[in-house]
Specification:
Order of helices and strands: HHEHEHEHEHHEHEEHEEEHEEHEHH
Number of helices: 13
InterPro entries: Epimerase_deHydtase (IPR001509), NAD(P)-bd_dom_sf (IPR036291)
Oligomer: single chain
Keywords: Isomerase, Membrane, NAD, Transmembrane, Transmembrane helix
EC number: 5.1.3.6
Organism: Tagetes erecta (African marigold)
CATH class of one domain: Alpha Beta
Enzyme class: isomerase
Shape: globular
Radius of gyration: 21 Å
CATH topology of one domain: Rossmann fold
Structural class: alpha/beta
CATH architecture of one domain: 3-Layer(aba) Sandwich
Helix content: 40-55%
Length: about 400
C-alpha cells in the first residue's frame, strides 16, 4: 500500500542509542539471549560426525504428535512465516523452512527471526524457490504432507522500480513450487498467501470472496490475482488441494519495517514528522488491521482443514478442494486513529504532514467480510488494535531500544 509504506528501514543494533541507566539491564538480557541461543544451536543444528544436512532436515520435519503434519513453510524467515512455523512446531508438527533472505528490507531482521526459529527447533534452508533442484532435494528427503507457501515479493511502491522481482517471486516461483508438488507422491496439500489487494478499488464493501477482482490496480495485486488463476488451474488439472488466503493489513511483533505502523513508530521515537495520506475528497484512509496471532490461527486452521490432494506423480485421480478465504479483522480503522494509538503507547506526540493520495495508489477504504472463514475455519479474531499495537510497541522498544531525542513533544 503506497500511502502506508515508508522507505526508511529500522536501525541496526549498533545504531540504536540506549539510555545510560538501561544499558546494564539490556547488556545482561543480550548476554543471556546469546548464551541460550549458542547453546541451543550447538545442541541441535551444528553438524558433527553423526549429523548431516539431510539428518538435520529430517529431524526438523519429524512429527511429534498424534495425527500431526509435516509442513514446508516458504518465506519462513518472514513476518508471518516465522510466527506460523513456531506455532506449528510448538504443537508437535514437523516444520522445515525455506527462505532466500532477499534485500527488500534489512536481512538482519530476517536472520534474527531465523535464530529465533532455531531456538524452537525449526531448520531453515537458505535457498530460492525457483531452484527446482533444491526443491527436488527437499521433497526427496522429506515426505511433506502440507506446504505453507508464504514467500512473496511484497509492497506496492517497489514494483515501480523493479517489476521483474514480482513476476519472479510471485508467479514464477509459485509455478516452480506447484510443479514440484504435482510430481510428489503422495502430493501435499497447499495453503498459500494471496492478498486482499486483489479487490482493488471496487465500490462494494465489505469485500467478499464471491466478488469479482478485476481489474487489479497495482502490479503486486496483478501478480496475486494471477497466482489465484494459476493455482485454480493446477487444482483442476492435477488434483492438488489448494487454499488461498487473502491477507489484509497484518501487524504485530517481528513485523515488516516497510509497513506504516512500523515506520510511524520509528519516526515518532526519533522526533520526526510523519506523512499521513488521505483519499479522495479528503477522506481518511482506513485499513482492516489484523494482529499476527489471529492470522496464525487462520493459517493453521487452513492447514488442518485443507483436505487431501488426490493426484500421484502428476496424475489426477478425482477432484480436490479449492478454497479462497479472506483473513482480516472485519473492523476497519482509520490511519489517523492508528497514529493516535501509537502516540498514546509511546507517550509522545508527532507532527503530521497530511497529503492527498495520488490516483494510482491503493484503495482508500478496506473493509472485509470474514464470514466464510468463520464458518469453514472457525476463524475468529480476538485482538483489537489497541491491544495489538501495545504488544508491538513493547517488542519494538525491547528489540531496538528507545533513541534519545531532545524534544519528546515534537
Amino acid at each position: 500500500m503506497p500511502p502506508l509504506e515508508d522507505p526508511l528501514l529500522p536501525p541496526t543494533f549498533h545504531q540504536c542509542r540506549f539510555k545510560i541507566n538501561n544499558s546494564r539491564r539490556r547488556f545482561t538480557m543480550l548476554f543471556l539471549w546469546v548464551f541460550f541461543f549458542t547453546a541451543s544451536f550447538l545442541t541441535f543444528f551444528t553438524p558433527n560426525r553423526s549429523t548431516s544436512w539431510h539428518q538435520t532436515l529430517r529431524s526438523s520435519a519429524r512429527i511429534r504428535r498424534h495425527n500431526g503434519i509435516s509442513v514446508l513453510v516458504t518465506g519462513a524467515a518472514g513476518f508471518i512465516g516465522s510466527h506460523v512455523s513456531i506455532a506449528l512446531k510448538n504443537r508437535g508438527d514437523g516444520v522445515v523452512g525455506l527462505d532466500n533472505f532477499d534485500q527488500y528490507y534489512s536481512p538482519s531482521l530476517k536472520k534474527t527471526r531465523r535464530d529465533l526459529l532455531h531456538l524452537h527447533g525449526v531448520f531453515i534452508v537458505d535457498g530460492d524457490i525457483n531452484d527446482h533442484r533444491l526443491l527436488t532435494l527437499l521433497f526427496s528427503t522429506v515426505e511433506f504432507t502440507h506446504v505453507m507457501h508464504l514467500a512473496a515479493q511484497v509492497g506496492v511502491q517497489y514494483a515501480v522500480e523493479n517489476p521483474y522481482a514480482y513476476v519472479r517471486s510471485n508467479i514464477a516461483s509459485l509455478v516452480t513450487l506447484l510443479e514440484q508438488c504435482k510430481l510428489a507422491d503422495p502430493q501435499p496439500a497447499i495453503v498459500w498467501a494471496s492478498s486482499g489487494s486483489v479487490y482493488g478499488t471496487q465500490n462494494k464493501t465489505p469485500f467478499s470472496e464471491m466478488d469479482r477482482v478485476d481489474p487489479p490496480t497495482t502490479i503486486y495485486a496483478s501478480t496475486k490475482k494471477t497466482g489465484e488463476e494459476i493455482t485454480h488451474t493446477y487444482n483442476r488439472l492435477y488434483g492438488l488441494s489448494i487454499t488461498g488466503l487473502r491477507f489484509f493489513t497484518v501487524y504485530g511483533p517481528w513485523g515488516r519495517p516497510d509497513m506504516a505502523y512500523f515506520s510511524f513508530t520509528k519516526r515518532i521515537l526519533q522526533g520526526k514528522p510523519i506523512t499521513v495520506y488521505r483519499g479522495k475528497n479528503h477522506v481518511d484512509l482506513a485499513r482492516d488491521f489484523i494482529y499476527i496471532d489471529d492470522i496464525v490461527k487462520g493459517c493453521v486452521a487452513s492447514l488442518d482443514t485443507s483436505g487431501k490432494s488426490i493426484g500421484s506423480g502428476g496424475l489426477k485421480n478425482g477432484s480436490a478442494p479449492y478454497r479462497i478465504f479472506n483473513l482480516g479483522n472485519g473492523s476497519p480503522v482509520s490511519v489517523p486513529a492508528l497514529v493516535t494509538i501509537l502516540e498514546e503507547n509511546l507517550k509522545m506526540k508527532v507532527m503530521k504532514d497530511v497529503v492527498d493520495m495520488c490516483g494510482n495508489g491503493d484503495d482508500s477504504f478496506a473493509y472485509v467480510n470474514i464470514s466464510l472463514a468463520e464458518r469453514e475455519l472457525g476463524y475468529k479474531p480476538t485482538t483489537d488494535l489497541q491491544t495489538g499495537l501495545r504488544e508491538f510497541v513493547k517488542w519494538y522498544l525491547w528489540y531496538y531500544g528507545k533513541p534519545c531525542v531532545q524534544d519528546r513533544n515534537v
